[in-house]
Amino acid sequence: MEINDPVGPPEDLTKWTGFLLNWVAAHARESYEQVVGQVGLKPQHLGVLTQIRQEPMIQARLSDRLRVFKPVMVTLVNELEAMGLAERRPHATDRRAVEVHILPAGLEKVREVDRLSELASDAFFGPLTADERRTLHELLAKLAKDGPAGRWDDTP
Hints:
This protein is 57% helix and 8% strand. It contains six helices and three strands; from the N terminus they run ααβααββαα. A three-stranded antiparallel β-sheet has the order 1-3-2. The radius of gyration is 19 Å and the shape is elongated.
């Protein structure tokens, strides 16, 4: 028996907004990982580089800001250092803290992802008008900030 992939989700599951959001998010995540992967990064790497693009940040603060467990952040920064995109430096006033600084190659990677993301977004969100894209973005930003996704604990 051959299974054909449907164009979209099964019709009987589309009545649930949560299911649709999960379906679209899974495809968006896969698409975005491919875009970022074109320049040799993972989305988490890009998150770190973007946070330190304007100014260095203490590694522990990066963990908190990106909601990444501290041991995972250590691994991410290790990988960025190995790629020559970022480096750790001692904090100027706190001997216990380490700051993460972006390097010129890291800035270039962020610029490359910006350019590729524009193209990928146009393709992914192609079915939506410019107004619909803006509305979707505003609604997602509102949920991310004010909804359960914006809180540290997941209780409704």
